[in-house]
Amino acid sequence: MKTALITGATSGIGKSTAIRFASEGLKLILCGRRQERLEELKNSLGVETSVHILNFDVRKREEVLQSIDSLPPEFKNIDILINNAGNAHGLEPIQSGCMDDWDAMMDINVKGLLYVSKAIIPGMLERQSGHIINIGSTAGKEVYPNGNVYCASKYAVDAINQGMRIDLNGNGIRVGAVNPGLTQTEFSDVRFKGNSEKAEKVYQGFEALQPEDIADIIHFVVTRPYHVNIADLTVMPTAQASSTIVHKN
Ligand code: NDP
Ligand code: 8X3
After folding, report:
1. Span from the CA of 233 to the centroid of ligand 2 (angstroms)
2. Pocket test for ligand 1, best of 13, 15, 103, 133 (most atoms within 8 A of CB)
3. Where does residue 170 fall: left (phi above 0), alpha (psi -120 to 50 degrees), or beta otherwise?
4. Where does the pLDDT of residue 113 fall: very low under 50, low under 70, confident under 90, or very high at 90 and above?
5. What separation in Å is there between the alpha carbon of 12 and the centre of ligand 2?
6. What pLDDT does residue 245 have?
7. Sheet holding 51-55, edge to edge
8. I need a labelling partner for 34 at 20 to 30 A (CA). Which of 11, 42, 60, 78 fits?
9. Is 54 strand, coil or helix?
């Protein structure tokens, strides 16, 4: 049975992926900062599969490396890495953007993804096998008004995804990105700093993607035969044509 490590497993896309993987019997390492949610997941999914939880902030390099190094032997061989932890912080024009928000997005979405990958890739190289899925975004394919730094962080994920695939080529490791469009999770609550009215509006008037839709796609990606690598997959709600064109009722 394969072992999957999912960052950002306490909510949204990561949580739905954990639930989906557990139902298929994959061994799980679930990561996030909210301990209570991690424990709830361990209790609920632990009846279906083996679950180990790791609490770390992806921004803290030493914490990331030590946490992953602390894995018990039965969880050490990670077959699948889902680099999912991330968020947008703010939606402001560049001239009024908040520098703490910029730091958060670059530190979490870009550097955090790199730190986690750095901790896991050596084991994959040793075993000459593994599968890395980087969660990008339509925001990493097309810049939208006020998206500036969030888009930059997701363009970086796109570049890192390509770079990883090139550098790891020939080592039995598959690398690919899944790039969702508008997906109804806690994403907009975080972006708008808990302003739930503003957050809800983002998904009103059309049928947004649900995190289960993305989990379903991630499960499809990881269950392709070994010679098939889905390198870059973009998925939007049917009502969405681009980052800025969404057909609303
Ligand atoms: P959620 O806010 O629902 O989930 C974000 C997850 O990331 C949480 O589990 C959170 O866990 C974790 N996380 C955030 N910051 C940190 C941190 N510093 N250290 C460790 N974990 C962290 O959002 P989504 O599920 O929507 O987002 C998941 C990914 O999908 C992100 O990369 C996002 O950019 C991407 N995405 C989302 C889209 C959408 O429309 N929702 C569309 C395209 C891409 P905790 O707070 O417990 O640490
Ligand atoms: C999330 C999609 O359009 O809200 O990455 O930025 S969007």
Report:
1. 15
2. 13
3. left
4. very high
5. 13
6. 98
7. 51-55, 27-32, 3-6, 80-83, 130-135, 173-180, 232-235
8. 78
9. strand
Contacts of 196 (CB under 8 A, 6+ apart): 189
The span from the CA of 12 to the CA of 20, in Å, is 12
Strand 3-6 relative to strand 80-83, pairing:
parallel
Other CB atoms within 10 A of residue 234 CB? 15
Radius of gyration of the chain (CA): 17
- Residue 5 CA to residue 103 CA, distance in Å, equals 25
CATH of domain 3-235: 3.40.50.720
Per the CB < 8 A criterion, the answer to whether 224 and 171 are in contact is: no
Q: State the Cα–Cα distance between residues 89 and 59, nearest whole angstrom.
A: 15
pLDDT one-digit tens code per residue, 77-95: 999 999 999 999 999 999 9
Question: Which amino acid residue places its CA nearest to atom 6 of ligand 1?
Answer: 8
- Ligand 2 atom showing the smallest separation from residue 243 Cα: 3
Which H or E run includes 102?
A: helix 99-105
Instruction: Give the start-to-end residue ranges of the domains of the chain.
Output: 3-235
- Of 187, 213, 240, which is best to mutate to test ligand 2, by the most ligand atoms within 8 angstroms of its C-beta? 187
216 lines ligand 1 (CB under 6 A): no
The first and second tokens of residue 101, run together, are 């928000």
Which residues does 201 contact at the CB level (< 8 Å), separation at least 6? none
